[in-house]
Design the sequence.
């Protein structure tokens, strides 16, 4: 798929004198609306030839998108950039009220839970193999002391570097600094440190797993798969590696291999609830609904507080047209995680299908309130950085919202700094379309709760809306 994507991109940029548009995002961009957008724009015959470059990466996040932005700009020289991104981000949630560059910094410094989790992560990864080594004990003591003195910050870059200085042969210390850089949005530094960890300890299956995840987020799936295979070779009882490799193969459309690996993960660890959920989701997508249901119920039996298992089981019930049971499963997921806006959105869609517009509106309102009350700090920072780079280069910026999502969520990220941004609202268009049709006509799944990956019809609708905005706002047509 990646080869085909790059082949289409090379064809697009080979068109001399064309107006180049680069599309950035995750799996809702990769191989989705960009080809339709190029077709629709060129059909308008405004006297300009358009070339659309698809640089979406499935399963990525805004850290990776931002890290690859300038190399992509240098390689493709676009006149315009379109983004639809943020759904896969994982930073701490923060209230919109604190959004501004200085306030973000102050907020993160005061986020004690986030700071503590970073410190505990470091403590865990350094405690395993070398527990009795004096240097490592000193390393942890120095870090704990530094953290205690610096109550207004996470463990700093200097603290992690000090750990390496105290024990330069500790692969665990390099992995800790790599994780710090990953959270700071410095993927190239993180990748280099993980490679160093492997160099120091070629038998560390954990280091191979960490580097595999780094490559996966960059879209380098073949390399990621190879690293996971190496992790399994080093530790054939590593159920986690089997589980993640199985997920890779499922996403790559290699079902028989995916199924075998997920089954192996469960065989190695019958209490791996996540492997049961992954295999259940795999069977659900394969239409093997009875088997999927059994696996999801087993995951819930292992951990009755796993809201994700209830969420996937609810999707299964919707597929089986067991709508009242889907309602119960979604409600249980919300009970376990009241701030999960995706599940509120899924209930909104379900109640519409059940013919209960009142409850649908109530759930939709709740989902919107949750989304308007916070945003992911990683997403906020990376949108600001991306805009600054595009502004500096004089590239037109189209900032697009996901289908069914409120545009205000995006506008509030920029906190009044919206000059030069052209926003695309996809909410109204899709909601109007769904008043007359079933969700499955426009969405292949519902991974976002109230939206998912678009069908061909959905991607064409999305592309038509973007083209309309571009032609009106940029070219006055």
Sequence:
């Amino acid at each position: 798929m990646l080869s085909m994507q790059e082949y289409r991109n090379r064809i697009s940029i080979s068109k001399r004198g064309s107006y180049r548009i680069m599309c950035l995002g995750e799996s809702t961009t990769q191989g989705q609306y960009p080809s339709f957008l190029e077709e629709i724009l060129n059909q308008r015959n405004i006297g300009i030839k358009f070339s659309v470059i698809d640089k979406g990466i499935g399963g990525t996040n805004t850290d990776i998108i931002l890290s690859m932005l300038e190399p992509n700009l240098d390689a493709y020289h676009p006149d315009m950039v379109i983004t639809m991104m943020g759904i896969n981000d994982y930073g701490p949630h923060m209230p919109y009220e604190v959004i501004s560059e200085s306030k973000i910094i102050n907020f993160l410094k005061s986020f004690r839970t986030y700071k503590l989790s970073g410190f505990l992560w470091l403590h865990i990864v350094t405690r395993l193999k070398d527990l009795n080594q004096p240097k490592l004990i000193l390393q942890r003591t120095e870090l704990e002391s530094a953290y205690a003195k610096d109550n207004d910050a996470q463990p700093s870059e200097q603290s992690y570097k000090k750990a390496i200085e105290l024990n330069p042969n500790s692969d665990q210390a390099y992995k800790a600094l790599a994780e710090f850089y990953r959270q700071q949005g410095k993927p190239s530094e993180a990748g280099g440190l993980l490679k160093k960890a492997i160099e120091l300890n070629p038998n560390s299956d954990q280091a191979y797993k960490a580097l595999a995840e780094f490559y996966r987020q960059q879209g380098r799936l073949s390399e990621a798969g190879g690293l996971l295979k190496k992790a399994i070779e080093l530790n054939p009882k590593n159920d986690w590696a089997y589980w993640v490799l199985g997920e890779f193969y499922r996403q790559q459309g290699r079902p028989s291999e995916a199924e075998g690996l997920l089954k192996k993960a469960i065989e190695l660890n019958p209490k791996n609830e996540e492997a049961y959920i992954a295999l259940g989701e795999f069977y659900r997508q394969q239409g093997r609904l009875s088997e999927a249901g059994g696996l999801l119920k087993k995951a819930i039996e292992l951990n009755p507080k796993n809201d994700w298992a209830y969420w996937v089981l609810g999707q299964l019930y919707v597929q089986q047209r067991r709508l009242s049971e889907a309602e119960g499963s979604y409600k249980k997921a919300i009970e376990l995680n009241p701030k999960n806006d995706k599940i509120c959105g899924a209930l909104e869609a379900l109640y519409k299908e059940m013919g209960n517009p009142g409850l649908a509106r109530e759930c939709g309102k709740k989902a919107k309130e949750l989304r308007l009350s916070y945003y992911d700090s990683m997403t906020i920072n990376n949108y600001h950085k991306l805009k600054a780079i595009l502004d500096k280069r004089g590239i037109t910026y189209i900032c697009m919202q996901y289908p069914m999502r409120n545009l205000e969520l995006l506008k509030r990220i920029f906190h009044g700094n919206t000059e030069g941004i052209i926003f695309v609202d996809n909410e109204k268009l899709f909601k109007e379309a769904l008043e007359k049709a079933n969700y499955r006509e426009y969405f292949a799944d519902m991974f976002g709760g109230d939206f998912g990956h678009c069908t061909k019809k959905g991607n064409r609708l999305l592309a038509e809306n973007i083209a309309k905005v571009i032609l009106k706002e940029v070219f006055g047509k």
